[in-house]
Amino acid sequence: MNVRRTEYETLVTSSAQDRSWYLHRLVPESAEQNRCRQYVVVGPLDLAAVRRAWAVVSGRHEILRTVYREVDGCPVPVVRPDADAALRVVDARALWPWPDSEEAADQLVAGWMGTPFDPATGLISIRVLVLTDTRARLLLVADAMICDEASVGIIARDLAAAYVAAVDGTDQDGTDDVVQYRAVAAAERQALVRSAGQRTPDWVSALDPAAGPLDLPVDRGRPQGPAPRSGGARFDWPPEVAGRVTRAATAVGVDRRVVFLAAFHALLHRYDRSARVAIAMPATTRTEATRAAIGPFDNPMVVAVEFRDVPTFRQLLETVQRQVHEGLRYRMLPFDHVVRLAGADRDPRRPPLYDAVFVCHDGPEAPLDLGSARGLPVPLDNATVQADLSLRIHRCEPSVAGSVRYRTDMFDHASAARIAAQLRTFVEAATERLDDPIDTIPLERHDELLAAVRDADRVEDGAVTPVHDIVAGLARRSPDAPAVAWSSAAVTYRELWQRAGAAAAVLRKVAGADRLDGVAVAVRITPSPSFAVAALAVLQTGAYLVCLGADDSGERDRAVLGGLRPLCLLVSTAPAGVDGTADDGFAAWYRDECGGTVLDLADVRGDGTGPALRPAIDPAAPAYVAYTSGSTGVPKGIVQSHAALAQFTRWFAGEFGIGPDSRVAQWSAPGYDASLMEVFAALTAGATLCPVPEGIRGNPDKMVAWLAAERVTVFQTVPSFAREIRRVLTAGAALPHLRVLLLAGEPLPGALANHLRALLPSIRLVNLYGPTETILATWHEVTGDVVGTVPIGRSIPGRHVVVLDEAGRPCPAGVTGDLVIRSPFVTPGYVGVEARPPHLFPDELSPDGFGIGPGPYYRTGDRARRRWDGALEFRGRTDLQIKFFGRRLELDDIEAALAEHESVAGCAVLPLSDQEGLVTRMVAYVVPRTVPGAPPATANVWRTHLRRRFGRVKLPLSFRTVDSLPRTPGGKVDRRRLPKPTEVADRAERRPPSTTEVVLGAVWRRLLGCHEVMGEDTFVGLGGHSLLLPRLAASIRDHFGVGVALWDLAVNPTLTDLAAAIDAALAATPDRHPP
């Protein structure tokens, strides 16, 4: 692009200015585009000379005097005769009593730097803060629409030269033969016209498909609305680090900045684990002719690195060097043009093509020569490009100084400082280990990893008393205390233990022995006093429990009994809904076809007051077997010991304050081990167990009424059912007695947790996590608002929960890995399996020296990462992670987001693969909920909801409505039993366009010059761009009589999305009516 000084008199804007204009309109309250430079002036300062100098500089560069007016939705440059109003002198001696207060000056300067500009009134600000006669601050703040980083430095140097001339009486007239930016903008436009139709460069084609949003270790999820605030964590690494960087760069033959950029790529890859990491860096479009010009010459250049294999650091350096050189060949190609050529989606919440930025200024900034005074540069943390995370290197020698910048809506300052520390650790090691794979290069020092591992270790020694012995003691000490509340009466501890003793005597008689060590006894009884009687009876004989779902008479429980062959099946045929299990033929099937023994507790007589026959129980002996479906669909029996049951219930009761005044709901299904935890956490603490009647358990309206009537203080459920509880509470119901709400079994959405805490402000809200193989593993109490998913927290006593990489090393904070549990309470094995599978139960874990004690160990198959505060964050199942066109998707995340919509009562997402095993699309099974006063939700409504949550990430989803979702006995969705998807699901979703869509479609056709617009068409996909959005907003006002913010136009990209936003605006404006 050739620019001559005398060309192009027409005032136009460049692509960079158009992009800045769009961002101003999109988020007018943001100061992210401010470019700042600060100097501490030491020596006397002639303020009149400063004003004359500024008049000279602003007269020389017309862009400093240019404002931008909106005409038909487009920015039109207007050059003013002067920019005198941009300069302001502030005398601190008139503001506060200690004018030389550096802290007060810093606060004032920070406020100036954080003040956004209005393009229509001016885009530059010069502030002189006079502290004393010989000390001042000089602050230059210019908007990215008129300045890049280099331009601010040019302004400062020009201002210093003009100041010296003014003081000497040799004022310059400002008529230097300098290139005006208008010529650059016009030349760029003509160059784009000439390049139309040319072949897309390979460097640009390689950016398609664009890298997905980075999975960064954030403190809070990406906000749905504008996020204008940012912060910075500074660092200054010693000269030794700078020396290592220089030596590594020399050894490989790369530039020093490439070392930092490659390290940043490696760090983000360790966090994200995706096949491609894209980082933008500013590439200057200056030429020899424009080296002294003022304007936005920085063009974002995307450096995308593929990580299909794990490279060594030397290989990564070479790759990044090639990518940088290739990108610089096309640095004159405007970034917005690159975006269009690459076909990247636009989302106002993140820049297209990248989420991170790297800026390197290799060399110190020189002081300003102000004659008898000097301007000493002050490092500032001002970002150059909007991004979630930015690495800025201010100085490469003698030490390495810089900052990690971040969005304050997503990161805390301490977290950014930890990221900077990890980067330093990586740079120090990688520059000395050039030929090591980057995944083996540490991000944290060994002592830091060791401390984190030890902090998570809650394994403890100590004998525990079996739960049935504790209950026996309570029956002696507090015989008349209520043990189980049922109907209008309560079963006392004495009555409960006597009935259990009578049942135990019958079991011994059936077995023909006093001890039933290692003998299985199946129990198929609904939550009731009889269930507690059965459990206590079995345990005190030395046998172990196998609880079956009383409402499941299908193949699963038949397979369990057929393979287990227990001593007998305990049932209770008391009237249905009173205390027992309705006779559905299952017991008869087991007795008649399998030859099994069925013992009905309703027939047991006696009060259990005979001689006590409670043999001492080996703590390692099995107490129960919990069956799960398993990944293969075959029921898998997980054995747990008396020690594990007793230890867990002791912690559970102690941590959550369960005691004689507590009333604990037994909500979990009997076929799920959580049911036993509820029973014995209550009964071993002297509390009252409140079994939930079957007709109430699945009905949220009845459940809330029952919880209130029973004065329940401790309630455990799953998040999906808690969502229904929330709905009932929102409608006005109350739970005045509830003290503890425990949620387990599913990821807990932050929005649900926040709402529950708002509705129930006096409760403790706790998120529990853990596999059946260890009962549970971690817990996290929610004490504040959460954005995203609630962490799963820290190890519970008796467990040591760690996150390991593929080589068995502990993962640094922020890095996702495999969640592994070390505990003496890991299941001893599976029923019918001679040896525990070594891939799940390894004999050894990490290399020596990381502080992980001896096993047993269990690999959960879950993914997790350690947050900066030490809590663990669930990152999904390895078998629920899919790749779609190179992009990783977590089905858990999609389901959690879809379930938040008010019209969704339940949902599950399944991936569908082609013959080669590649995922081509997904099907969302939705149980719809009728919302009073609202029309039935459609697939488009749900798709729009997901798009708002995930941005423009392509989710190849079709939807199928179902009456209910099949579930496992534990309450989780059973994906194997979901109906098979049909290929015509999307066709059935189509509907006639609404009136708003018809009118809006006509507006689109006029603006875009297209012939047909469909509901799923996007404005950008039909040829629209950011500058057309203001014109679209004006057309919407003309046709519909309502205003739609530019942000809403951007986040509702399809015709259907935008029509819905317009309808919402119309509904909120009573005097307006649809066209």
Description:
It contains 30 helices and 38 strands. The chain is 33% helix and 21% strand. By secondary structure, the chain is of the alpha/beta class. β21 and β22 (636-641) form a beta hairpin. The strands form ten sheets. A six-stranded mixed sheet has the order 4-5-6-1-12-11, sandwiched between helices. A six-stranded mixed sheet has the order 7-14-13-10-8-9. α8 packs across α9 and α27 (995-1008) packs across α30. The chain has five domains: 15-187, 2-Layer Sandwich (Chloramphenicol Acetyltransferase); 206-444, 2-Layer Sandwich (Chloramphenicol Acetyltransferase); 464-652 and 665-680, Rossmann fold; 885-991, ANL, C-terminal domain (GMP Synthetase, Chain A, domain 3), CATH 3.30.300; 995-1067, ACP-like (Non-ribosomal Peptide Synthetase Peptidyl Carrier Protein, Chain A, Orthogonal Bundle).
Question: Briefly, what is this?
Answer:
With 1075 residues, the chain is of the alpha/beta class. Helix content is 33%, strand content 21%.
What keyword list fits this structure?
alpha/beta; Chloramphenicol Acetyltransferase; Rossmann fold; 5 domains; six-stranded mixed beta sheet; 38 strands
The CATH C-level class name of the largest domain: Alpha Beta
Kindly report the CATH topology of the largest domain: Chloramphenicol Acetyltransferase
Percentage beta strand: 15-25%
Q: Can you count the helices?
A: 30
Can you lay out the helices and strands and say which pair or pack?
Elements: H1 15-26, E1 34-42, H2 47-60, E2 66-71, E3 74-79, E4 87-91, H3 102-113, E5 124-132, E6 135-143, H4 149-168, H5 181-195, H6 202-205, E7 230-237, H7 239-252, H8 256-272, E8 276-284, E9 298-306, H9 313-329, H10 335-342, E10 356-360, E11 368-370, E12 373-378, E13 389-395, E14 400-407, H11 413-430, H12 446-455, H13 467-477, E15 482-486, E16 489-492, H14 493-511, E17 520-523, H15 529-541, E18 544-547, H16 555-564, E19 569-571, H17 586-593, E20 598-600, E21 622-628, E22 636-641, H18 642-655, E23 663-666, H19 673-683, E24 688-691, H20 694-697, H21 700-709, E25 714-717, H22 719-730, E26 740-744, H23 750-759, E27 764-769, E28 778-782, E29 794-795, E30 800-804, E31 816-822, E32 857-866, E33 872-877, E34 881-884, E35 887-890, H24 891-899, E36 904-913, E37 919-928, H25 939-950, E38 957-961, H26 985-989, H27 995-1008, H28 1028-1040, H29 1046-1051, H30 1055-1067
Parallel strand pairs: 4-5, 8-10, 10-13, 17-18, 17-19, 18-21, 19-20, 23-24, 25-26, 26-27, 37-38
Antiparallel strand pairs: 1-6, 1-12, 2-3, 5-6, 7-14, 8-9, 11-12, 13-14, 15-16, 21-22, 27-28, 28-29, 30-31, 31-32, 32-33, 34-35, 36-37
